[in-house]
Design goal:
Layout (H helix, E strand, L loop, with lengths): L1 H17 L6 H46 L7 H12 L8 E6 L2 E3 L17 E9 L2 E3 L2 E3 L3 E9 L2
Antiparallel strand pairs: 1-2, 1-3, 3-6, 4-5
Helix pairs in contact: 2-3
């Protein structure tokens, strides 16, 4: 009977000593982990937007290059036709989008028109469209300035 009383006393003493020591531990862990978790989440969202813009840019340049390749004899300004297709396929990327066209060895970069390019549209020659777009990667106010997206597609003129 004496050992039973001693065991009960030890257990009741353990409860009193450890009753408040775990209180607030989860809040402390949360405050330590939350800034790191927010940093990772905003980084993922920022990179997600950049990846989306890269996919949209690649798809738009592909659409413009395909239209450029099949527009031989149908337009007097093939670069304007391709630029219109690219702008239509990527309406969110108009600001800052820079295009260059290489039609049968002749490069057109100054503007998005190339009326002289219609003469270079020879069946079997290559037409290349290159696009660059500046992207902004920002994580908690830190902006990484060296982010440029680019896409280049080459098609044979039909």
């Amino acid at each position: 009977m004496a050992t039973l009383k001693a065991c009960v006393k030890i257990r009741s003493a353990d409860k009193r000593i450890g009753a408040g020591s775990e209180r607030g531990g989860s809040f402390v862990e949360f405050t330590l982990v939350m800034p790191v978790l927010l940093l990772v989440m905003t980084g993922l969202v920022s990179f997600g937007f950049a990846l989306h813009n890269d996919l949209v840019l690649t798809n738009a340049v592909n659409t413009g290059a395909q239209l450029l390749a099949i527009s031989r004899g149908q337009t007097t300004d093939p670069c304007a036709t391709a630029y219109g297709a690219i702008s239509g396929a990527a309406p969110s990327l108009k600001t800052g989008l820079s295009l260059s066209f290489l039609i049968n060895g002749a490069t057109y970069t100054a503007t998005n028109t190339c009326t002289a390019g219609a003469a270079n549209m020879v069946q079997g020659a290559s037409a290349q469209v290159t696009a660059t777009y500046p992207c902004t990667l920002a994580v908690f106010g830190m902006i990484f300035p060296t982010c440029n997206l680019s896409a280049q597609i080459t098609e044979f003129i039909q």
